[in-house]
Amino acid sequence: MKVVFLQDVPNVAHAGEIKEIADGYGRNYLIPRKLAVLADKAANKVLEKQQKINAIINAEQSEVARQLEGKEIVLKAQVGAQEKLYGSITHADIAEEIQNTTGITIDKRKIELDEPIRQLGSHEVTIKLARDIAARITVTVTATEDATETVTVTETKAKTKAKTEDATEDATEDVTETEEEKGQGEQ
């Protein structure tokens, strides 16, 4: 069976290709899911229409890639010891920040990260908008101001606790000395 692919099918064909495939695969999978149509005169019209739509989409994606290329996105996160984040920066966080700073909506699945970002610093991230269209941005992760306040509060609590322990020890020594003085005075 000869079909015209309307959409990309991984490891089979790209949109717009005409291929010979197994009858059952075409009849039971590709055609019902509108991934392909039988190759005939009507299919040629559908193919031309699909190619026009793809050209428009590629032009739009190219414009978005041009706007994003080289941009720097700054994200703030709480930091623990050794500049490690308490959580991590994920695809969704990056997509949300792109939306907030540039106004461009990016699907989080188009952002390529091997694993979530867990360290402070600058990280190169690729956004794959289409098969041949990608943009590289820099994601800079900085510590939130709350993180420094948390350290300051923790240090203050530690100092207060140390002072309280010292005061308790001094008071205990005074009480012990007073009891010893009373015991010696009674004898």
How would you describe the overall organization of this protein?
- The chain has 4 helices and 9 strands; from the N terminus they run E-E-H-E-H-E-E-H-E-E-E-E-H.
- It is of the alpha+beta class and 187 residues long.
- Helix content is 48%, strand content 24%.
- It has a 4-stranded mixed sheet with strand order 4-9-8-6.
- The chain has helices spanning 23-30, 41-68, 91-102, 145-186; strands spanning 2-5, 18-20, 36-38, 72-77, 84-89, 111-112, 117-119, 121-128, 134-143.
Supply the key terms.
187 residues, alpha+beta, Ribosomal Protein L9, domain 1, Ribosomal Protein L9, domain 2, 2 domains, three-stranded antiparallel beta sheet, 4 helices
Chain-averaged pLDDT = 80
CATH superfamily of the largest domain: Ribosomal protein L9, C-terminal domain
Tertiary shape: elongated
* Strand and helix order: EEHEHEEHEEEEH
Show unreliable segments: 147-158
Helix fraction by DSSP (H/I, runs of at least 4)? 40-55%
Question: Might you state the CATH topology name of the largest domain?
Answer: Ribosomal Protein L9, domain 2
Quote the distance from N terminus to C terminus: 116 Å
**Shape-level CATH architecture of the largest domain:** Roll
User: What's the gyration radius in Å?
Assistant: 33 Å
Please give the largest β-sheet: 4 strands, mixed
The tally of helices reads 4
